[in-house]
Amino acid sequence: MHEQVNNKSFIQVGICFIFYFRHNVTFKTVVGESNSVQPDMIASWFETTLPTLLTNYKLEDIYNADEFGLFYQCLPNKTYHYKSEKFSGGKNIKVRITGLAAANAVGDKLPMFVIGKSKKPRCFKNVTSLPCRYRAQKKSWMDSSLFEEWVREINAMFLKEGRKIVLIIDNCPAHPDVGGLSSIKLIFLPPNTTSVSQPMDQGVIRCLKSLYRQNWST
Hints:
Number of helices: 5
Distance between the termini: 64 Å
Largest sheet: 6 strands, mixed
Strand content: 15-25%
C-alpha cells in the first residue's frame, strides 16, 4: 500500500512537471548578436547621450535608416499540393538585393534605396520610372560611396523643404561621416550593439519582408 502511494505521488509530480514544461518553457536559438550585447553597453548612451543629441529636434525630424538583404527569388516555404502526390522542395536561389529602409519617428517613410548587381537589369526594360532609387554594386552591397550619394540626395531634398533633420544609423565602414551637410545631422549608434539598439531591427524590416513574401506567395 505504501509503495502504491509513492508511485501515485511520483506520477502526480511527473504530470505537474510536464504541464509546467509545456506552458512555461520555450525552445529558442542560443546564438545571435543580441546575446553578446550587455545592457550596460548601451544604457548610458540611451539615457543621457541620445536624449541630449535629440533635444532640439521634433519627432517628425528624427529619422532612422538601416540596410537589409532580400533574396527576392527565394521560393515560398509552403505550397498547396494533392495528398496523393509526392512533393519535394527546390534549392533556394541566393540571388539578392540590398534595400535601405528609412523613416522618421512618426512613421513617414523615405523612398527606398535599392542596390542590385546589374547596372541595367532586363526586368527594367521599357520601365520609365521606379518607386525607388536603384544603384548597382558588384556584390549588391552598400558601400561608402553609395551611402554618401544617398545621404547627399536626401540632404538636398530636406534643404529644399527648409528642414533640418537628424539621421540615426549603424556605426560601420559602409557608413562614413559625410561632411558638408546643411540639413542632416548624422548620429551613429554605439558599435556592435545594433542588434538591440537599431530601431529598424525591432520589427520594421521583418514586417517589410513578410509583406513581400505574402505578395510573392499569392
